């Protein structure tokens, strides 16, 4: 049996990464996990999300949600949903201004292509410095691919 993998995509913008996977589940089922901040730690491939600490049960355009995180040290971050299309796309950002997006494309027969995108190409100078200093851009593609594999396992299991 071959190991399930997500495809890491080539991206032409600096400080940006993307990965894609096909999940044998309807977009609505996948989107329910993405729109539930309390579920994010269950499919986080980076291991940095510890738990949801504030926000609505289900995200929506403009919703704010706080997460307990740990990347070398524990911290808390508040995200804001900046794009929301039911069963198609959800994007959030925080004070550093980069965004995390999930785009869902219905392939028919209860199969969905999911693309995760980290976009930091037009962020402020301090945020660019921070990404470089922490090595996030180098780590992100592999972590995103792991997240998508875990999301697939949750949705197909």
From TrEMBL:
<dbReference type="InterPro" id="IPR023393">
    <property type="entry name" value="START-like_dom_sf"/>
</dbReference>
<protein>
    <submittedName>
        <fullName>SRPBCC family protein</fullName>
    </submittedName>
</protein>
